[in-house]
Amino acid sequence: MEHLNQTLFLWLNAPEHPNAFVVTLATFFAEWFIWTIPALIGIGWLRGNEGIRKTMLIASASGLMGLLINQLIGLVWTHPRPFMIGLGHTLIPHAADSSFPSDHLTLWWAVALSFLLQPRLQRAGVALALLGVPIAWARIYLGVHFPFDMFGAIAVAAFSAWLTLHVAGWYLGSIYRLASGIHHRIFGRLIALGWVRE
């Protein structure tokens, strides 16, 4: 399996003299595109009704759960990144920590699959899930992940999305009240002026 993982990596990884535009595009997807997730959740919270806001909270819980599971996996089993074993070409800096599963893709797909499991945001979930593909490619192309790290990410993300949705009754009400209280404290004046939804 590891041989297949390394073979796929070398097939997708950047060549010795990569095209500058492709590197720039890959860097955007690998390092900056992830900020779409907090932006979407923030906009959804500010503009949405109670149902949408609760959906945003479940998606946030899914992402956080996925990242927690990744940390536990890393403690139990450490898998080196390609540059740690001298494989391929690395075009962006990264800490020499465990590569499996990919935190970027886990967070992205955990939110995407959380949306996908909830009827009101299924189209957004499909779009986000598809947009995870160039992120996966970019992190392999730039040399910081193996392909199997991405398969691990989608497995963790799927479990996290399913779990946080099915146990939402345990935490959603209290988290929603807390988040609403913080929202009113921060945006109280703007709410009063009608600029921000209550």
UniProtKB/TrEMBL annotation:
It comes from the Bacteria. Coiled coil: none annotated. Pfam families: PAP2 (PF01569). The keyword Lyase does not apply. CDD domains: PAP2_BcrC_like. Keywords: Membrane, Transmembrane, Transmembrane helix. The chain crosses the membrane at residues 20-45, 57-78, 98-117, 124-144, 150-172. SMART domains: acidPPc. Residues 55-165 form the Phosphatidic acid phosphatase type 2/haloperoxidase domain. This is Undecaprenyl-diphosphatase. It comes from Paraburkholderia kirstenboschensis.
